[in-house]
Known about the structure:
The chain has 639 residues and is α/β, with parallel strands linked by helices.
Amino acid sequence: MRPSATNPPELGSRSKPILSAQGIRFRDLDGNGTLTPYEDWRLSPAERAQDLVARMTLEEKVGTLLHASLRGAGSSFDLSTDRYDLPLARQMIRENHVTSFITRLVADPAQFAEQNNAIQEAAEATRFGIPVTISSDPRNHFQFVPGASNVGGGFSQWPETLGFAALGDPQIVHEFADIARQEYRAVGIHMTLSPQADLASEPRWPRQTGTFGTDPAQISELVAAYVSGFQGSDHGTTADGVLTVVKHWVGYGAQPEGLDAHNYYGRFAVLPGQTIAPHMAAFRDAFRVQVAGVMPAYPVLREVTLEGRKLEEVAPAFNAQLLRDELRDTWHFQGIVLSDWLVTRDCNALCRAPDKDHPQELSDVATSWGVTGLSEEERFAKGLNAGVDQFGGIEDPQPLLKAVHDGLVSEARIDHSVERLLVSKFELGLFDNPYTDPAAAAQLLGNPATAQRAEQVQAAAQVLLQNRAAMLPMAGLAGKKVWLSGMGEAAAQAAGLTIVDDPAAADFAIIRSGAPHELLHPYHFFGSRQHEGRLDFRPGDEAYDALVKAKAAGLPTVFAIFLDRPAILGNVLDKADAVLGNFGASDAAVLDAITGRTHARGHLPFELPSSMAAVEAQNPAVVNDSKDPLFPVGAGLDY
């Protein structure tokens, strides 16, 4: 609901005075003692933004187009830090005029809120008092993925989005997103860099855990529920909502061999013929509910034809056919286009070919795929002219300023994006009160009832793939002896189980595992953190050897596997009596499914292949197309 004379906003100021005009209160953000139109909350967000843009210098406008990183104390990118480098943040806000930042802070809720308030104080002290938009990668999923998510700080922990796809229930997705929205705003986060509407079309791709699976229609429906829950409505962002950035437009999942485009070696995706159409269709309902932002994908798309024209082989952030012609004109998207991170940076030798003696560091990461032959200022200009509004991971305004001064991009084009970005801040109410209450944050986050509900959904989202001799559910476990592999003892003890070290002394076994993977690129920054390569279990794998050991002891065995990628289970099924697939679940949630306290009722959101030969023969752009899958998409047993 828009503020009005009968419903005025609650104002929050730390350094700028409060004005009274006609008996109504406003923040005097420019400090001139009179009511400037952009300070007047009775005007529409568009009217306020237009007034402010007309007052800004080119330098202030260019700074608005950068989405930088809030670093930890000592300028660190350390994900475990609990406080910002405030002097550095103040410098970027004051000198570079940056007003959008991603946070990777991990802190208790009150501390988190206080740190974000300190950032807003620094912004309030600037010439126009333009508030900061603070974004985050996902924080509410049980599995932590470096570079793609954050965890900790009291945020409720739900299954990965693949788990929501396994349940297929838009109401549960909306429930989750609505809770996450409240948690974000409580600590001062205003934008989520999620969800992924990518099709999980290549089984080896390491980022499918953050997708909604392989069915474009279901993805579209669940993405819409996610967006409306976060933004606060199904028709755009509300004042207490969180700007939602759906990603990655488009075709990101079609990576040959699953080699991810964060890395130089994974910079291409291949979508022959009309295979790009389902990848686009997955975004449909995000646009219906007026998603605030879209993030273009990283890889250069090859073998794609759109509207009878061959697609230019540059990354989507530089591709006018994908952004202007398709996204804006065909799909009628009116929101913010935020590039993924570091798309304008040079890819140096350590970006391309690091080695044991010279591993790639974060400072060597770059993703300027398809435009490496252009200068940095030319990349900025090409991206803006293609349709990008803001550049992720960038804090230096000079190359973009030079592009304007050199005539590569017009100031009118800059104005258009600045206005769009400012409208989002006005819609969120940040110009009227950018501050949050640390005490309220401490009370909201870590709520026991919410934590219990989230763990219940973790348990329910599991998929029962095998249940020989109706082994599950196993009620009355108190006092039974269990041999564990890959599961912590605490949850088993809480369930009344007695843990033994010798399989011969156990009544049954529980073995937890992730899907198999290899470390194919250990010297690349992201390659060293991503799961690549094979999907089949082999001797020497800890979980496989544990299964063999349990089988030799004659133990009834439950095998619980985290399906971050579609594992090949052919040589597992003969060794396990029950097989439970999960998509991010605590030990307690796994035990709840084993005992039947919560029934696992998920269904596979992708197929599980029968062999690596079948995986290698499938088309990375096409979903569920491996030969003779061991488990088809949608598989899942009842107890």
